[in-house]
Amino acid sequence: MSTPLQEAIAEVVAAVAPLTIAVAVLSIIFLGFSWTNLIQLLIGAFFTTVGLFLFLRGTRIALLPMGEMIGAYLPRHGSMALLVATSFIFTFSVTIADPSVHVLVSQVASFPDAGINSDFLAIFISAGMGLLVTVAILRIVLNVPIKYIFLGAYSTAIILSFFTKPELVPFFFDSGSVSTGPMAVPCIISLGLGTASVLQRKQSLADGFGLVGLATLGPILVLMIWGVFI
Amino acid sequence: MGEIIVFQGFPAVMAEVGMTLIPLAILFFIFQTFFLKLPRTFMRKVVVGMISTFIGLSIFLQGVNIAFLPIGKMLGAKIGGLSNPIYALPVGFILGLLVVLAEPSARVLSGEVEKASAGSIRESVLLRTMASGVAVLVGLGYYFIARGIALTWIIIPGYIIALILLKWVDPAFAAIAFDSGAVATGPLTVTFLMSLGLGIAAEKLGGPTMNAGFGLVCLIALASTLAVEGMSFIFKRNSKKEDGRKCACQKNTTSS
């Protein structure tokens, strides 16, 4: 007998608790026992739990229905130009607000000597996501096999990795995986499913998947191209 | 860490979060006025949801900033300072296991794969494959960082293999494989894994550099992708066997 509210709380606790315990154990092993550390960790864990809960609730109430409606509206009423523009702007907006992107940017801000402006970083990452999600949405509409797109995009990333700043390559790849966080993923999927549902083709299963996987490539490609010039 | 920090720096976090939510609010406002024109009650829900998102995101980031980031860095510095880099291996292994097993989205994805394979790949099997794959790669990743080797040397060959495998992977699975990589990494695990890696690298290289600390999150993605691709071969083999079995009985029912 569990209400949706209890389920939501359980989900968030299940996400935070194991890591908190692991961090506590690791810090006792490696750093020695300290009340200050443990209390600090508990306060932080409490904050992240409450924060994640409120965040996910807000996303479910406001953003997911929004993504689905926009996704379903576009192919029916809009022109191709509207579809492209909106996919890009919507993805850009949800990515720049994603908690994982915030964390990445704050990590990079602790490397002032790396020559990366952290304000630009968030904008580049979000623009990259917007770009590739737009490509992925166009792929659904134009019915291009997803394998070719994966192959093209990942090969480009691998080739670019030889020309961009070598010491930043791991960071670029990270930024791709990081950007698909708890805000961006559900929104992008709802946008894609909204688009696919209106088109009503047979292989809708394959249509719905792949969007997020492609989206990760966006930040990688944009940052790598940027890395060629800095 | 000298004293306990609770709300220090919170206003700055709120301001930052507020700024990043502005594009979304504008976008929806435009869509509402010009295209969708949804009823008032729905709009009220959207506004409440946006406020909840704003407060939640701010509190979450504050928690990350006061606890998980600094403790991760301290741990990393300690592990990086150990004489033998091999200690980084088990730490990474355990954290890798945790990432997959604790991440709700990894479970959701495994459920999707079970559905897509019509039950031939069980959720628990995929979850275990992913968990072991991620554990091994993250363990190796920390070991590389502790030795001062850039993770590029795992990432690039790994993706080349993943691309070559695409040739034989079923299209539905190809999409799921690359999605799984992106989905398996939640905000909290990302935070902690990364700060630990950066801590090790900073200690090892004698100061903060971006050289060797990054790449771990991408390794998680890579491991999940390879795990799902591997699973698709097992699925193929199983379904071929079943086709063979079905053929005999289906001859009678082809007309229907």
Task: From the structure above, extract its key features.
heterodimer, A: 230 residues, mainly alpha, 11 helices, B: 256 residues, 2 domains, 9 helices, disordered C terminus
Mean pLDDT of chain A: 84
Enumerate the spans of chain A where pLDDT stays under 50 for 5 or more consecutive residues. Answer: none
Give the CA-based shape of chain B: flat
In what range is the share of β-strand residues of chain A?
under 5%
Topology of helices and strands:
The complex is a heterodimer of chains A (230) and B (256).
Chain A: H1 4-31, H2 35-77, H3 80-96, H4 99-108, H5 118-142, H6 146-160, H7 169-179, H8 184-199, H9 204-208, H10 211-215, H11 217-229
Helix pairs in contact in A: 1-2, 2-3, 2-8, 3-5, 3-8, 4-5, 5-8, 5-11, 6-11, 7-11
Chain B: H1 10-36, H2 40-81, H3 88-102, H4 104-116, H5 123-147, H6 152-165, H7 171-183, H8 187-204, H9 216-250
Helix pairs in contact in B: 1-2, 2-8, 3-5, 4-5, 4-7, 5-8, 5-9, 6-9, 7-9
How would you portray this structure in words?
The complex is a heterodimer of chains A (230) and B (256). Chain A has helices at residues 4-31, 35-77, 80-96, 99-108, 118-142, 146-160, 169-179, 184-199, 204-208, 211-215, 217-229. Chain A is mainly α. By secondary structure, chain B is mainly α. Chain B has helices at 10-36, 40-81, 88-102, 104-116, 123-147, 152-165, 171-183, 187-204, 216-250. The longest helix of chain B is centred in the first third of the chain and has 42 residues, at 40-81. Chain B is flat, with a radius of gyration of 23 Å. In chain B, 52% of the residues are buried. Classes of the chains: A mainly alpha (230), B mainly alpha (256). The interface between A and B is large, with 104 and 109 residues.
Offer a quick outline of the entry.
The complex is a heterodimer of chains A (230) and B (256). Chain A is mainly alpha-helical.
